[in-house]
Amino acid sequence: MQLTEKVSLLSRKIEREKAAKKAAEKLLEEKSRELYSAKQLVEDSLVNIKEKSEQDIALLQFKTYLESILLDFNQLFLQKPISNILLQRLLDDLIGIDEIKACKVRFKSLDQSGKFRSYYAGNKALINNDSQISSPLFWSNDHRQIKIIINSEDIILGSLTLVIDSPNSWQHTIEKQLLLFCDMISAAHSRQELLARTIEEKQRAESSEQSTRDFVAMINHELRTPLNGLLGSAELMSDTELSSHQKQLLSTMRQSGELLRVIINDLLDLSKMSAGMLQIVEVDFSPAKLCQMIYDIFKLRTEEFGLEFIFNYQDGIPERLLGDPDRIKQILVNLIGNSIKFTQQGKISVNLEWRAERFCFSVTDTGCGIPQDKIDTLFDPFTQVNNSSNRAFEGTGLGLAICKHLIEEMQGEINLESTLGKGTQFNISLPLKPVQTLPESISASEQNFPIETLSLLVVEDSTVNQVLIEMILAKLGVKPSIVSNGLEAIEFLDNQQVDIIFMDCRMPVIDGFEATKRLRADGYSKPIIALTASTTSTETEQCYQCGMDEIVNKPYQKEDIRKALVKWGCKLNSAVTTSSS
């Protein structure tokens, strides 16, 4: 091959390599641009995700803060009537978070004048007081100010106004939380009016047996419902992180709530006694477990008072007895509580034994004793050893009267021996029957049942109780659906199915009894558990007659709800297993 041809071939090869290199460089440049664009896209996405996460965290903190205030003031409003001080405290707490710049409550005067009064917190100048609204909820044009009407039974009680610096995406959460605050204030106002109406109603109550029964049932419901919110909220708060001061306040609140429960029970029991409604039930129970419960209740309390607590459970008591354990517990709690109250130093002794086919127990103290001229009247209602206004010991004077009535209803006997300045001994004997059969032990499936897998419907008209049971169920890992009356429950179940229903008994539109009847008539077979504030045998019978499967009494605790869910969840699971096999 000639030299010129070789040179020509080499030149063409070089040109091809140059072209290939140029194409490769161009491709590399294009890919570099694509890679840079992808990198920018990833960085932008990471920034957006970070901003979204920060917003979500801020929203969660904001919601948690409002919920904690709601819980705190819900308890305060249950303990105390609405006052100028409480409303101002509520506003002062609301501006404790950066997003809330100012707030105002305009509320109907608590006196007879009926005039409106305004309360402020934060930067008052930020609030636009000129805004007139015709709807229950109104946002300003810049979405910085929200105003919500507070009403009760279509009567306007006032309004709540907040100036909030937050993203527009928070609007739904803000509305939901503030509506709960307005419902809480409205419910507290309604309770005050209800209490006043109840007192007037009691004074005018007819003397007939039926009107007395209706009155007792209504009082039972209306007093236990707010008490349920108080004690239930206290239980939920005890599971949260609290400072030592908050724990002390919570302990005081729970003790006050339990004292209120005792007083309410005494008053209601007296009403039932007068109406012939106080009844004794007979169930199979373990006296040892009952007495252990009593010991646990008073062991710490006696230590706090510096008293020695001796609990002597003698051999020979049957393992199972037939009787009313709740009423026996009530008697023991009342007697031991009285001994603690009237014993400044020394000891309290409880002795339990089985003698001559009777369950016998005595409560002995080293207290101040009872004068002989007071012993004959000690079991009369509203009677105390010292009835003067400056007496040292608080109480209604109903406990011993109710104990005596309960013991007589159980065909038992009570007597006392007392020496002034040395102490008192109460002796009780009850003719209970031993039971040979042992109860079924808790199965492993019940102990380990995953209640978080259950779908629930809560039918409850009280907003306070809705929030309470939703929080209790959240602690158990369950998120329920919630409706406000029986009609809403029926309509809900037309389109959806649930495993278990918690049904309040007394509600507007359609109550729990009628709703359950209609559901059972339509073939609904899943468990329906009554949530009732009533403890009367009449209402208990009504619950079962309309088709309810179980009753959980208010005030309930998380353990009461958990046990009901485990029991009926296991039964549902067993039924499904049986049908599939």
UniProtKB/TrEMBL annotation:
Enzyme Commission number(s) from the entry: 2.7.13.3
Gene Ontology terms for molecular function: ATP binding; phosphorelay sensor kinase activity
Modified residues (4-aspartylphosphate): 504
Ranges where the Response regulatory domain occurs: 455-569
PROSITE patterns noted in UniProt: HIS_KIN, RESPONSE_REGULATORY
Entry keywords, A to Z: ATP-binding, Coiled coil, Nucleotide-binding, Phosphoprotein, Two-component regulatory system
UniProt keyword GTP-binding, yes or no: no
Keyword Phosphoprotein: yes
Coiled-coil parts of chain: 7-41
Catalytic activity as recorded in UniProt: ATP + protein L-histidine = ADP + protein N-phospho-L-histidine
SUPFAM superfamilies: ATPase domain of HSP90 chaperone/DNA topoisomerase II/histidine kinase (SSF55874), CheY-like (SSF52172), Homodimeric domain of signal transducing histidine kinase (SSF47384)
Domain Histidine kinase: 218-434
Record-given protein name: histidine kinase
Annotated organism of origin: Shewanella pneumatophori
